[in-house]
Write a structure and sequence with these properties.
By secondary structure, this protein is of the alpha+beta class. It has a domain of 62 residues. The chain has 3 helices and 4 strands, in the order αααββββ. Strands 1-2-3-4 form a 4-stranded antiparallel sheet. A hairpin with a 4-residue loop joins β1 and β2. The mean pLDDT is 85.
Length: 96
């Protein structure tokens, strides 16, 4: 009897759970944001030197850096959902 009750309860509670994105999907999403940034700024794409994915920095021009970080969002304690989106936080040079 316990087993019969436990299975439906497990299914019921697992349906409502929000899971974090698997690392490969979160990385793909983050990389897409950085690549779209490069594509949308003519000066950046014309002088692109590298993209440091680990540090979330796009290097372009003469010592220019576009720095990305997670957008600020309030999360309830114990949150396990997907990470906030990447956004451009600052650039050491003008972009256009």
């Amino acid at each position: 009897m316990r087993r019969v009750t436990a299975v439906p309860l497990a299914v019921l509670f697992s349906v409502n759970a929000i899971a974090a994105l698997a690392p490969e999907y979160q990385n793909e999403k983050d990389f897409g944001v950085m690549v779209e940034f490069v594509r949308s700024h003519e000066r950046v794409i014309a002088s692109l030197r590298s993209i440091d994915f680990e540090k979330r920095i796009v290097y372009f021009g003469d010592d220019c850096e576009a720095i990305f970080d997670r957008e600020f969002t309030l999360r309830p304690p114990g949150w396990v959902g997907p990470a906030a989106s990447l956004e451009l936080k600052s650039s050491t040079c003008r972009l256009d």
